[in-house]
Design a protein that fits this description.
With 76 residues, the protein is mainly alpha-helical. It contains four helices and two strands. Strands 1-2 form a two-stranded antiparallel sheet. The longest helix is centred in the middle third of the chain and has 12 residues.
Length: 76
């Protein structure tokens, strides 16, 4: 899920994406993800701040970026 990547970053074959979501509030992060999910031909449902807060708390222990293998597993 993009929310996990924005909160904790992602490492991959071409480099590492930093955890950009740490500098945004729950509301701001929800707005960014909702924009992306509704743009470029996408029609996904919006992300709400309580979900961002839940994921932020759920993965607060995480100190390293996600890998592709980890992201293939379902969230939670």
């Amino acid at each position: 899920m993009p929310l996990r990547v924005l909160l904790n970053g992602k490492e991959g074959s071409i480099g590492e994406m930093p955890p950009l979501g740490q500098s945004l509030s729950d509301e701001q992060l929800a707005q960014v993800l909702t924009y992306v999910r509704g743009s470029f031909g996408n029609t996904a449902s919006p992300i709400h701040p309580p979900l961002v807060k839940e994921f932020r708390q759920l993965y607060a222990y995480r100190k390293k970026p996600w890998t592709d293998a980890e992201l293939e597993k379902p969230a939670r």
